[in-house]
Design brief:
Chain lengths: 333, 264
């Protein structure tokens, strides 16, 4: 086998520290690099981020390349592209992995087009076959099919979905750290004026989601769903129709055109389960479905189901949980 | 010069109905009628609203089979002024790189443009890559996931970009490309009169030869596509055996399940 280029992972770190997808990519990248008998390089870009290199080494990187400059404090996609394209031309990696976050999905295509190479979006697996070919696995057609993709150009580039790879801290934990000089391009045409507002809901990180759909009759009934969600320390989610009605913001929408979630517990209330909704939540650990129609597709992927009217079931459940809380408190006091 | 906005749109199968032939790795186009990619309607609406404000004109452009004419007529009925169909067997089998390259060549052929507006992704390919790739081929800046337009003028836009964790206010110099989310607007419905007019409108069709003076034809279609789908499968939907909780005890059972899972 000819000596193959390295595996490169582009870290994501803005504001609140390193995005966890970085560690997932490094863990998978380590596995692939070992298989290809090559090195794993982590790329860190931002401002005042040099101290984050240690974390990246812990997840198996052999080498960290750092671009640290105040101009990188904000995500100017053209600037990031410019630096990465030059680095990739120097390093000639075999594989470049970028998180399929919105930043990653804005950045990766520009790099791929600049390098005239293939890019596969939103992968849920990366494998290496017996010939040493890299295989990218991704859902398409709103999750209705799974496609297996090979790339004949180099580097192979892929964006990878958040929360599909397990993180694995590595035995290495040390390696080379290279600080690159940041050469700025002339005006990129983009100015990030300010962070307008942070999102209050981060539904993709929620451990418990209580979601409602068309079974809900009135906008104000969302309060009932919220109450249950709160009791379970979770947040409310929604299928598309309620968002389209304007009852709830798109930040809460679960499904192909909303958020893809994987909580520990997903309670679907009055959601029949369109392919577009299922594509966003079917990998939840425990799924409980409450629906009046016993033939609703949601029951096909649910662990537990109750056929019935959510307007009877939810209030009773809420009441029972509350009673329990009260009696638990009495016991404890 | 008139303000010129280009909207690339895609003809896609109705995703709720489409069927797949796993053996041949093809979609069975006869199984579902085609339609305009729903996300592209928001892009078109954005373009038409800007045109209404600044004047100028909107060109809709689509690469696809001859039937893709349908979505261009749809675009004309919703306010586009001109429509171009890129159709040729030499364009077939294109991945996002070849698609964006071909669109870039066609847009260069159109001549002057100020703004390109794309939907955030398509419902079939679901990559969201063609927009940013197109911007790179044309050497212009782009802003992805635009959920709101704040200021629109002939030389720059100020937009809100939804980056998952937060919304950012971004200024971008024109010519530029933006991709818009569904939050950006509610697409208008075409009037009957507009529909009738669009039905009769002329749609220009360009083939590979029409673009060969502008770009490298080996980068069109399958020959310009470095990625290949070599296998498709149906997702292993872990069809779970749903345990139905019934009768009077259903709520008690549910409570027990929640307790065992550590959710109470």
């Amino acid at each position: 086998m000819k000596k193959c280029g390295n595996v490169m992972v582009v870290a994501e770190c803005y504001g609140e520290g390193t995005h966890p997808i970085t560690f997932e990519l490094l863990s998978k990248g380590r596995e692939i690099a070992d298989f290809l008998k090559t090195e794993l390089i982590g790329i860190l870009m931002g401002y005042n981020i040099k101290d984050k290199a240690g974390e990246l080494l812990q997840y198996g990187a052999d080498k960290i390349v750092i671009f640290d400059d105040e101009h990188l404090a904000r995500f100017d996609v053209v600037l990031y592209k410019y630096l990465l394209v030059n680095l990739i031309k120097e390093e000639r990696p075999e594989l470049v992995l970028i998180g399929a976050t919105r930043r990653g999905r804005s950045l990766a295509p520009r790099i791929a087009a600049a390098l005239n190479t293939g890019l596969t979006a939103d992968c849920i697996d990366i494998q290496v076959d017996a010939n040493g070919d890299i295989i990218q696995v991704r859902p398409a057609f709103t999750g209705n099919i799974i496609a297996y993709i090979k790339t004949k150009s180099r580097p192979v580039m892929a964006t990878v979905r958040y929360k599909v790879f397990k993180t694995k801290a590595s035995y290495r934990g040390k390696g080379e750290i290279i600080i690159k000089k940041v050469k700025l391009p002339k005006d990129t045409g983009i100015r990030i004026l300010r962070k307008e507002r942070a999102k209050t809901v981060k539904i993709s990180d929620a451990k418990v989601i209580v979601a409602c759909g068309r079974g809900l009759k009135r906008r104000e009934d969302i309060k009932m769903i919220e109450e249950l969600a709160k009791l379970l320390d979770g947040i409310v989610g929604s299928s598309r129709p309620l968002v389209d009605e304007g009852w709830i913001s798109r930040d809460y929408q679960i499904g192909f055109s909303g958020n893809i979630v994987k909580p520990k517990l997903y309670i679907a209330c009055g959601i029949s389960g369109s392919p577009q909704h299922l594509a966003g939540m079917r990998n939840s650990e425990i799924i409980i479905a409450i629906n009046i129609d016993p033939s609703a597709p949601i029951f096909k992927i649910a662990d537990y189901g109750i056929v019935g009217d959510l307007y009877e079931i939810i209030p009773r459940l809420v009441e029972k949980i509350k009673k329990r809380r009260v009696s638990d408190e009495r016991k404890n006091s | 010069m008139k303000f010129h906005i280009v909207v690339p749109i895609k003809y896609v199968p109705d995703i709720e109905k489409v069927k797949f032939d796993i053996e041949t790795r093809r979609i069975d186009r006869s199984s579902a009628p085609g339609e305009t990619n729903p996300f592209d309607l928001n892009a078109l609406e954005t373009a038409v609203q800007i045109k209404e404000k600044l004047g100028g004109f909107v060109t809709a452009i689509s690469m696809g089979p001859p039937q893709a004419e349908l979505c261009l007529r749809d675009a004309l009925s919703r306010g586009a002024d001109k429509a171009i169909l890129l159709s040729d067997v030499k364009f077939a089998g294109a991945d996002t790189l070849a698609t964006s390259y071909t669109l870039a060549c066609a847009i260069k052929k159109l001549g002057h443009f100020d703004l390109i507006v794309c939907g955030e992704k398509t419902v079939d390919g679901d990559t969201g890559q063609v927009g940013p790739e197109l911007a790179e081929h044309l050497g212009i800046p782009h802003v992805a996931y635009v959920s709101e337009l704040r200021e629109v003028s002939k030389d720059k836009l100020v937009v809100v970009s939804d980056m998952e964790d937060a919304y950012y206010l971004v200024e971008v110099r024109l010519p530029a490309l933006i991709t818009v989310t569904k939050d950006v607007n509610t697409p208008r419905l075409p009037s009957l009169r507009a529909k009738l007019r669009a039905r009769k409108a002329e749609i220009e069709t360009w083939n590979a030869d029409d673009l060969s003076g502008i770009g490298d034809p080996s980068r069109f279609g399958i020959s310009g596509s470095p990625t290949t789908v070599y296998k498709i499968t149906l997702p292993q939907i872990k069809e779970k055996k749903c345990e139905f909780l019934k009768g009077e005890n259903a709520i008690e059972e549910l409570l027990r399940i929640l307790e065992e899972g550590g959710f109470l």
